Amino acid sequence: MKRMFFVMVLLFFSTTLRAQTQEQDLAAIPPSTPVTEVRELFNGKDLTNWYTYLRGYGKNHDPKGVFSVKDGIIQVTGEEWGCLTTEESFENYRLIVEYRWTGKIYPSKQGKALDSGILFHSIGPDGGFGGIWMLSHEYNLILGASGDFWTVGKASRPDIFLQSTVGEERLGGNDFIYDKNGKEVTLVGNNRVCRWDIARDWTDTTDVKPAVNEKPIGEWNTAELVCDGEEVRCYFNGKFVNRATRVSPARGKIQLQSEGCGIEFRRVTIQPLE
User: Fold this and answer.
1) Closest CA relative to residue 99, chosen from 50, 37, 141, 55
2) pTM surpassing 0.70?
């Protein structure tokens, strides 16, 4: 009985500490900017209202020119791992991002599918995950499977989670969850849930083919993210592909990843929920 009491007390204080840690992380970023009208987060000219963060280099130190703007396009070489991060925090919004692959792959991603992502509800210190990104959730941009969800978190931070209606089936050694039985599963730590319509034979390899509604390399794709309280929905090239019903935290900054692959962005639009 004493042991059970001790365990209960330990769990209580652990849960309280995690909640306090998340509150501190949220308090450390600016209050959410109200999204009351359509707004372009990328002005087409420069990276005003964004800052860079690169592993090993830190904030706004980009000696290799990983991030640049040319001809109205954000160019991300992917040579170093890191991100562009909004100065502002947001909640309850629709985000529309247009991107395309350049086809360039660096050694850190050799043999893998072209990969980047939109990190949303980002909290805590820059580089809090692996010295690269803030703790966050991800709308994955990856060739053949864009629209996947990731929890970019740590096992020690179960207050950062994403709950989705999916089946918990592991496929061929790939560490992701595939939609089969419509069961509800909660992701914590560094984990992934595949978009509901992805083929079972998708592999994280260089020769992976674009998904059925995905444009060829070099052509523009549109990723849409709808954040409505704790619910998040993903659309890819106009098609609904993923949904989470409970997401924590439900507000934060937005990051665009540099992850070993060349990618370009020409539109980052935020707008109110309909």
Assistant:
1) 141
2) yes
